[in-house]
Amino acid sequence: MSSRLSSRNGSGSRNQRHLPPASTPHTNQPALTDRSTSSYSSSFTSSSSWQPPDTDIIQLPSANDFPGRIRTFQQLEDFLCTVPTSCCEAPLHSLHQAIKRTMGEDTFFGLLLPQIINLGRKCNQLFTSPLYIIRPVPSTPTSTSSNQTSTSNGSLYSNWSNMVGKYNVAAPGTQTVRLSAKQCLALMCVSFLCLFPGRMTSNCTCDTDPTLPSINLDELYYPNVPHQTSKLCMILEYFQRQFYRLEKRASSLSNELVFARMAVTEVNWEKSSKPLLPVTVHPLHRTLDEGLDTLRVDFANAIIGGGALSYGCVQEEIMFALHPELIVTRLFFSGLQQNESLLMIGAERFSKPISYGYNLQYGGRFHDPAKKHNNILQSYFVAIDAVDYRYKSKNFQYTQNMVARDLCKAYSAFACTECGPVPRDVSTGNWGCGAFGGDPELKSIMQWLAASQSGRCMHYYPWDHEWLHDHLATLSQELLQCKCTVGDVAQFLFDETSMINALWEGKNVFTQLWEHFCQPKQTKLVKNAPQPRPQSQKNLLPTTNTNRTQQQTSTSQSMPTSHPNAQPHDGDQDLFGGEYHVTNSWSTESEIQEDTFTHDDSWESSGPLQVMNCLSQPKGPTQRRPHTKRQVNAGSPLSRTH
Questions:
Q1: Which of 60, 113, 204, 546, by CA, is between 20 and 30 Å from 385?
Q2: Quick check: 385 and 301 in contact, CB under 8 A?
Q3: Is the previous residue joined to 91 through a cis bond, with omega within 30 degrees of 0?
Q4: Would you say 586 and 605 are in contact if contact means Cβ atoms under 8 Å apart?
Q5: CA–CA separation, 158 vs 173, rounded Å?
Q6: pLDDT digits 0-9 by tens, 425-451
Q7: Coil, strand, or helix at residue 547?
């Protein structure tokens, strides 16, 4: 172990020898030629003349760093566990199992591995100018305010303290990378052999720069975990198919892939006059993979790909395993900022999945039906990251700053008009509503506003959220009949005080929207109103059985807030995964005591986390609630004085 560390950090580090040939100086649009197929180009478009620093040059291994002929798994394991750029630890269970399940050791060591080594050794020859890490480009903001601060790399961030209805932050511009399929294959060969210098893996990121994703596959190899073995099977399927095409000189290896870092500068949502566009709600348990002719949303981590090269096994990680060319984005792009998204065009799908999460299995070969136009496969993905509310109050997501953040995050993804023709429709679903604890109703409405603002119709896949499936289409039709604009609904969402107070009264987001926009113009209230979610879903605060009965009887008959067949019980599940224990003592809301919560960081199902359906309470200074162990801070969104 000490030899590996000294080789990595000492004066004779191998990293110093891994600069690619750079015979031409870096310009605003470097011409980086692939000698055999297509071309690599990187464009940095912004309002300033900023250029990436030389420290952001991506290092490639030299030909001497690649191994000779490897004939057995023991030899492969010895190489991967001793190369200085790898963190592999023997035995490499997952890799061994994946090889045996897909093609067998004879085929792998006799045919596939020699091809991987040979093409990886030639990787430097496919790029004649440096490759650069693409970070947010610093530029002058459209208007400077005291809430913007400069970071170490010159980028501007906002602390979200003064953003109501307007998103005003530094504009990185649009930065794109264009690669051929053969160049992607060569980079994946280097990744498979864990030879990218300076990118040692540390929990899905780079150990020397946590803003960069990991790119070597070492974290996939050594745990004996079935779902990681399944992801490796999908990657091996990609290698097998692409090398067969390379041998047959197939034209598909000249296909181009485009990756673009997108950002927005300023959107005044409350003054938008754009009309709301139609929403199509798809049946339950259908996936975004069916939206082949649409812009599909990647529910991403800020570090692009998340745990794709490690333990991750939900939507984004499975998407990257099915489309291994997306893994290459982890080499180029640092973490996304609050106003950014990542557009990915041209990635081909090679495998079929079975099940989801920890039950993920490799389902065999898949032939992508996407058509090709101008040498680019018509496959469109856009990555947007959500805010993690597991360790925050769930009401925090209804505040003005968080609504503004999510609106502009989605808009940066949907308004991608500078990278060629992109499908008019967008396919999305319960973004940030699984383990992160987002409200599916709020997220669906915000994505609808962003799609309408960018002139796109939204296709929504609710997965297993039956209540959302039943009422999103109805509500969207009602709002369209009322001729609501994006600005009308955005102004309603930004009124956080009214929103949170209504949540306390048991009115979810859909109910509030219906009452505000549709009820004054409708007469058939009961028929058209969104019905409440079942009482079995998680509530913000528990109530005793007696008080629960009183609340149900006092609720409006046209808009009930609890399911009529709900059965009372002694303890309600906490939103964080624990349980509230209701006692016979009573206290005012300000006297609720604090408790510590045990957070479950394990994977949750792909379906949305069922979130708050607050029961209505009688108002007034003498209001009393059951005594629980939850502290409500005076300045939090849960406070009645907020």
A1: 60
A2: yes
A3: yes
A4: no
A5: 17
A6: 999 999 999 889 999 999 999 999 999
A7: helix
